[in-house]
Amino acid sequence: MTSTRERQRAAARARLEKEMAERAGKARKRRQTQAIVSAAAVLVLVVAGTVWLATTLGGDDDKTDTAAPAAGASECVYNELPADQRSPQIKDVGLPSNQQSATGVQTMTITTNLGPITAKVDRSLVPCTAGAFTLLADKNFFDNSKCHRLVTEGIKVLQCGDPSATGKGWRDTDGTGGPSFRLPEENLPTDKRPPYPEGVIAMANSGQPGSTGSQFFIVYGDSPLDPAYTVLGSVTGGMDIVKDVAKAGDDGAFAQQAGGGHPKKEVVISDLTMSPPQG
């Protein structure tokens, strides 16, 4: 038989082992809980990092790709006319490219029934207008059109470029035609006096900004116009043809409006070309 002291010692050992087991169990639970919390924290950081990476590296889908123009090129704006603004006098040959070369010089040759008229066009000054004219020339836009307006008083200009001004005689709609797009003005002679000297070729417009089309005027004498018309280039040959047309006078058809009239000496453009840029 065991003594009372031995039974007391055995009971004490049992209580101690039970307490140690309970403590060990509680410690295991604390470690498990900490592990779960730590894992959750890591998951949150990983998710947050993924969101940051997606925002930083993958956000380009919401951005518009606006590539910069290539070296030596200009970004141009050609505004297509809406359908309700396209009269029968509008000739649609498509739109020029939005990127146009801004280097080199082109030769414009206007072949007429009276002989050729040539001009120099510097693309560094008028890349967008030169680009538009090159497209129109390549599409035979001006072929068989007439120079519909001559002004001999106040300003001295011969106006051409309406593709609908064709055939025999004159129509009330002559001077209202153009391409299916318009473009902003450029190379305005705001610092020149006079703004439009003899020998300049400039673009006509409606008087509103961004209304340049295909119509142009050849200045055969210094003209005090407002500097609101794109200077396209300068005449290098054939000015004598224009002056001979001016000497013949006009019929006064536009005297009560913009001034001048149809030239009495008819000028028909059989072809207009733009050479590749040089230099």
Automatic annotation (TrEMBL):
A GO molecular function for this record? peptidyl-prolyl cis-trans isomerase activity
One Pfam entry name: Pro_isomerase
Protein name in UniProt: Peptidylprolyl isomerase
Outline the segment boundaries, as ranges, of region: Disordered.
Answer: 165-190, 254-279
Which parts form a coiled-coil structure per UniProt? none
Source organism's superkingdom?
A: Bacteria
Q: Where is the PPIase cyclophilin-type domain?
A: 112-274
Q: Which UniProt keywords apply?
A: Isomerase, Membrane, Transmembrane, Transmembrane helix
What this protein is reported to do is described as: PPIases accelerate the folding of proteins. It catalyzes the cis-trans isomerization of proline imidic peptide bonds in oligopeptides.
